[in-house]
Structure formats: structure tokens, C-alpha cells
Amino acid sequence: MSPHPPNGGIIPLDGAAPELSYPGLSPQLLARVRQLWSAAGLDFDHGWRVGLRSLPGFRALPRVEAAPASTDVDLVFLYDQAVLWARALHEAAAIGRQHQTDGLNAAQWHGLAALSARLTEQLAALRLLALTDLPMPAMQIARPLSEDVDMALVILIRRKLAERFAACRSAEEASDFWRRHIAGGRAFRAISEKLYEVGIDYSDDTDYAKWRKSVLTTLGAAVHSNALKTEAPRRQQGAVLVNGDSLHFATFRIHELCAFSQLLEPDLTGALAKAANSTPSANPLAALAAPMSKIIINQIQSLSAPPANTPKTAKHH
Fold first, then answer.
1. What is the model's pLDDT at position 305?
2. Taking the complete model, does pTM exceed 0.90, yes or no?
3. Measured CA distances, 312 to 18, 97, 103 (Å)
């Protein structure tokens, strides 16, 4: 494979330091992330190589000399941290399913493993599309990715629903399940009700709910065929991304998955750690799932605002 992909990025060498893949990255953000990893007893360079350097289609960001700020690069860096945690979650959930690890039942492990596999593929594809100036297909992926996050959270709070999900054996059954339990915001309403019980209000009239609905409406317009006149966004002077809306929303949703899952299922982190330790041969990615959860939650504050070209429909932090 050529080290110079069509979008002008490069495929980093195996032993290259992670920051070399993010030219223009904020030194403060890099230092904070390294500090979080170190505090968790983790080797950031090794974890990055295992979980991100090996990601299908992974490539370094192009160097843009005229970039006025590190905003775009910082966003991709935070997005990649979310990707790494999602991959680790999948590995740990797959082991948990295989060994029937305590903490979740068989159907929950099954659902979490399946959904995190989908999330990993969607995140890899979304990254590739965002870096190759294809914002519309990126939006088309961000919408189902958000629904998969909601589904993953629902199976943690409704075990019978997790069993119905795991029992689907055909495309028709899966489609019927999705229509009955996920479509139209049904899953999110169930999550909101449960979060309300622990003191978090995401009811329909909150700024968060309005922002979420606005973003999903925009993403839905990209998914469904329509006759609306749209023009492809143009790259601004010094910009790394044509638009970072989809990357920002996807990162935010993975952050929510990480944070809300621990609120809705307090034993999840412990269960992930047990799963990772239940195999004779260590799985380096699975071992990151539990300790990285705290790191991802601590990064939420770094994703404090949408990209500059995102309509400010509502505050969501």
C-alpha cells in the first residue's frame, strides 16, 4: 500500500509517536491526554498503536501550514480516543460473551459485543470519509451510529429487551425489532427516563434534547432521499476538515455511551475488567476497556463546543 493516500495524508510508520499523526495538535491537549493515561497506569503510545494504528483505513492527518488554530486536529485526536475505547469495548464484550462473565447476562454481553462491532466499523468509515472530503456520506453514517449508541444503552437497563435483540435470527426479525423498540426515538426515551431517576434531566424541553433533535434531523436529511437543494461544503482556508459536524457528534455520542453506561449499569466497568482478565493470553485491547472509561469521561470537557461551522442550535454540555 502506498504511504501517500489520495487525500494527501500518510500512513504512519509502526513505531512512530502518536502525535506525528496529528500535525498541529494542541500541545496542551496532548499533555492532558498523556497525563490521563499515565494516571490510569496505561502506556499511551502502546495503546494508540494497538488500537488506532491498526484501524482499517487509518492515516495521519495532512499538514496544513495555514491552519489558524488546532481546532480540527484536536477534534480528530479526541475522536480517535473515542474510536480506541469503542474497539476496546468490543474486545472485552466479546470475551465476556464467550466466558459468560459475571456482571451482565448472556443476552447483554451478546448485544454489547454486536453493537460495539458495528460502532467500530462505523467509526472507522466515518473517519475515512471525513478525511477524504465526503461530508454527506459521513452524515449518513453518523445517524445510525447514534441509534446504535442508544441501543447499547437500552440493553444495559432492559434485560428482557436485550434477550429479544439477541433472539433475532433473520434480517426481517432484526428490522421488526428496530422498528418496534428503537426507531422514532423510542430507545432514547427509555434512556432519558432511567437517567432522570439518577438526577439527569434530558426531557424533551431541555436544551440538550432540542440540540439532539436538531442534529438528528439534519443527519436524517442526509440519509433519506429528498429533493432539497444542497451544496457540498467547501474547504475553508487553512482547514483540515471540510466540516467536522459528523465527527463532533459521533465523538460526543461515544462519550455519552461511556458515561451513561456507567450510570445506568454501575457494575459495567468491573465486568469489563473481569472479562479482560478471564483469558489465559492477555488481549491488549480488551484490557483497555475498563481503565479507559475514566479517561474518556475526563475528555468530555475537552469537547466543549461544536466546530465553528456547526449551527448553534443549543448548548449541549
1. 55
2. no
3. 32, 41, 40
